[in-house]
Amino acid sequence: MPNEEKYKIVMISDHPLSFSGVGLQSRYIMDHLVKTGKFKIISIAAAMKHQDYRPQKVDEWGDDAIIIPCDGYGNPSLLRQIMDAESPDAIWIMTDPRFYEWLFTIENEVHQQMPILWNTIWDNYPAPQYNKAFYESADFLGCINKLTYDICCELGFKNKARYIPHGVPEEEFKILHDKTPEKLKIQFFGEEHKDSFVLFYNSRNAMRKRTGNVIMAFKHFRENLPEEEKNKAILLMHTPPKDHEGQDLYMIIRDFGLQNFVRFSEKKIPTEVLTELYNMSNLTISLSSEEGFGLCVIESLMCGTPVIATKTGGMQDQLIDEGDKEYGICIPPDARSLIGSQQTPYIWSDHVDPETASRHIKTLYDSWKQDPVGYKEKWAGEKARASMLKRFNLDMVKKTWELEIVRIIEEFRAKNRKIKINTI
Fold first, then answer.
1. pLDDT value at position 1?
2. How far is CA 411 from the centre of its chain?
């Protein structure tokens, strides 16, 4: 299709070549749209510091994708430049509304030229009345979790909301039948740990992730093991130990006497290595108090490894299937706090006590000890993977976005043509 006939889409999100959850999901959708041959993407690439702010191209996308580095999530001046130079057909944005207050402020100006599609997410109730103006400004709300969809419906936006969850590539996150957990434990930890129990944490070290609670839950879990089994339990944390938004994890494990039992994977790793870590681990854990989706849950279950997670936000969508089957344990919060800020006046924060989490870890540990071979298939395994492929299929997610973008653009064009005819 000639360039002048392609739909031009401005995408604003984390950098599509970054490894953040938002960046990865943006890349999957961007890649699909470009490869249909029907779209040209102008990506405002946010959420990271750049060494070079010149527009960039990627070989596999050619002229159909331009990446514009940006420190924040865009600004009016940059968008106006793009609107003047490219005459885009739509703008597609992803993640929290706080990043896009500038866009919603000029939405009347934007709507003179194009519609706004928003891949939106919210972590918890109460329904945020303070977001109504933002939802009103968008032409389409693609809701990443069921809670967000329900909130949009409750606030009166059912007619333009649709549940479109995340997905991950099935050819990348998979069960490695040729690499047993024992072989992988030898590969990563040495022969002495081939029969150790590995608890895996793969998320940011940030306050809402409750990373310290994960360490404390592991500490309680170890303390309740028989003496001869304590040295055979490892907490593997794929996270920065000294993230500026989180805690000093080095100091926590030092002061708790866990130096020999907590291992860190600090650097960015290829997806194939991450898949090996999921396959090696006996259990993945996330005790986030606010979590819109939680990619570690779907990634782990795609690899057949069960998960323990807080029953909050989007994690419960993944961990509990349509028949109420849990692929691990979804833990109801022990306490809730109504937290907030000047931008977000109120939202529930769901907290799991580390002691509670430790008991659930012990439940799965005991199951593993009783049947090391059949343990994963009992709790997750192929059944969990099949459930993920049915409910969070990445091909379905990409195709749904393609169709919705085209539909919204064509409806916007038809509406504008009608307005022009009526005003002649």
1. 59
2. 30
